[in-house]
Specification:
The chain is mainly α and about 190 residues long. It has helices spanning about 10-20, 30-35, 50-75, 80-90, 95-110, 110-135, 140-155, 170-180. The protein is elongated.
Length: about 190
């Protein structure tokens, strides 16, 4: 009986986790094999080289962070604003997706092909925000500005470490900012 091969998806998943922890330079065949407890020979049964793995990792990230999120949002139902809020929570509050997203953003600063992929993903995310905000805001310029600010807040709030005066918590300030941008009450 032959040895069981490590499934392709495990290589991709380990690559994504390694990307989130250490950036694209940390994604090495040898280190992934060690993490998986296998030899690197099995890798070449699925991928021609590291570049092929990186490409499939980006495919998996895009599918999971956009297609799967949008599918969950549609299944949950609700109005356009509820869908936009849920999409943001599923993406930018996820202990799994958000670190990968940040690592892809860092990688995109140095790789034009990755930057183009990120642009495509971000454009799909922005379209959801535009659709939601246009339900209560008729001015296209304001819709675009609010969408951009909401997107920046979703990413940036995790990167900014500030104190809020008056005993306000980060959650309170974020809730208020979200209400200002996406409509609704505080």
């Amino acid at each position: 009986m032959g040895a069981l091969r490590t499934p392709r998806e495990r290589w991709i998943e380990e690559g994504l986790l390694t990307l989130a922890r250490g950036g694209v330079d940390a994604v090495r065949v040898e280190s992934l094999a060690t993490s998986l407890g296998v030899t690197k020979g099995g890798f070449y049964g699925y991928f021609t080289d590291r570049g092929a793995l990186l490409s499939e990792m980006l495919d998996a990230w895009e599918r999971e962070s956009v297609d799967d999120v949008l599918e969950q949002v549609e299944q949950a139902g609700g109005d356009a604003l509820e869908k936009a809020r849920l999409a943001g929570q599923l993406t930018f509050s996820s202990q799994r997706l958000f670190p990968i997203d940040l690592a892809v953003r860092d990688w995109a600063r140095r790789d034009p092909a990755v930057a183009e992929r990120l642009r495509r993903v971000d454009n799909r995310r922005m379209e959801l925000l535009r659709e939601a905000i246009s339900t209560f805001c008729p001015d296209p310029d304001e819709v675009e500005a609010r969408s951009l600010l909401a997107f920046c807040m979703a990413i940036g709030t995790h990167l900014i470490t500030v104190d809020h005066p008056g005993g306000r918590s980060r959650a309170e300030v974020s809730t208020r900012a979200s209400a200002l941008l996406l409509g609704g009450s505080w």
